[in-house]
Design a protein that fits this description.
The chain is of the alpha/beta class. The protein has a single domain, classed as 5-stranded Propeller (L-arginine/glycine Amidinotransferase, Chain A), CATH 3.75.10.10. The protein has 12 helices and 17 strands. A hairpin with a 2-residue loop joins strand 9 and strand 10. The longest helix has 21 residues. The chain is globular.
Length: 311
């Protein structure tokens, strides 16, 4: 049986973190920081990153950290789950990225470094789709129910049905698709990544159902989650804006379950929601507000879970 959660996480420490203009075109969560120097932004992001890693390690999570590179410039490298995914059969998969400067995040030296500790039996790449203008951004686009072999995906410019079909055919998953929208200047526009409005744990799913305007798609998603015995914890669109959908369940010391999120996400939750989540693990949260504001991503985006066997 495939595991849904892991103790091993890969994270990339930022070296020149800043707002990525190439991703801001369809990531409406990104906001510019007026009047703050690039040096201060980088210092702040690095401090928040280090504190987050420290919290995870104190809970017994095994975090493998790689340093970002100055050249080439990759302002979003702090979100590695978009270019790579790891699997229990020793496979890693590489994904086609929407922004050209994000494609530079795919680093051979990182894969070589991981080979020292983890079994990598095969590397399967979907990156040829970039030449056709089609994208699927890893576990940002794909919420993988590894136990039931279901891939949940909100269709957007970064999550395209043709690449999703290719992934599902190759990896043996069944797709469940829908359209998740957010209001931007009075218009309903696609949410750039599925993992902003939804999180999938072993026995629960956090989901912003209000972002799915098509009631048939909404009903279909709820049915799939209920059929696979996931307790649905619904969040509002306001909570989604605070990255309450961008959580990840991981394993800490002695297989203790942890539900990891940002401080903004934690603070947005009601007491009832927190109590429900506590059934599925200790709530671990860290302040990453600079990363959230300029990067438009949160705690889950920063963690690429490693399922490959340890050597």
């Amino acid at each position: 049986m495939s595991k849904q959660i892991t103790n091993n996480i890969m994270m990339i420490r930022p070296i020149a973190f800043h707002m990525n203009e190439q991703t801001a075109v369809n990531n409406y969560y990104q906001k510019n920081e007026e009047g703050v120097s690039p040096e201060d932004i980088q210092k702040e992001a690095q401090t928040q990153f280090d504190q987050f890693v420290d919290k995870l390690r104190k809970e017994g999570v095994s975090v493998t950290v790689f340093e970002d590179t100055i050249d080439p410039q990759t302002p979003d490298s702090i979100f590695p789950n978009n270019w790579i995914s790891f699997h229990q059969d020793g496979v890693i998969r590489l994904y086609p990225m929407y922004a050209e400067n994000r494609r530079l995040e795919r680093r051979e030296d990182i894969i070589e470094g991981l080979k020292e500790r983890f079994k990598i039996n095969d590397i399967i790449s979907f990156t040829d789709w970039e030449a056709k203008g089609a994208y699927l951004e890893g576990t940002g686009s794909l919420l993988l129910d590894r136990q039931n072999k279901i891939a949940y995906a909100a269709i957007s410019e970064r999550t395209m049905p043709n690449v999703l079909e290719d992934f599902c055919d190759e990896a043996g998953y069944e797709p469940v698709t829908f359209h998740a929208l957010q209001t931007v200047n009075g218009k309903r526009l696609p949410i750039y990544h599925t993992n902003v409005m939804m999180c999938l744990g072993e026995e629960f799913a956090i989901v912003c159902l209000d972002s799915i305007d098509d009631l048939q798609e909404r009903e279909n998603l709820v049915e799939q989650l209920e059929e696979t015995n996931k307790e649905i914890i619904e969040i509002s669109e306001e909570q989604k804006e605070q990255f309450a959908g961008n959580m990840l369940q991981v394993l800490g010391s002695d297989d203790q379950r942890l539900v990891v999120m940002s401080s903004a996400a934690f603070n947005s939750l009601s007491d009832d929601q927190r109590n429900t989540l506590k059934k599925y693990g200790k709530l671990v949260y860290s302040d990453i507000h600079t990363i959230e504001k300029l990067g438009g991503g949160s705690a889950r985006c920063m963690m690429a879970e490693i399922f490959n066997p340890i050597k």
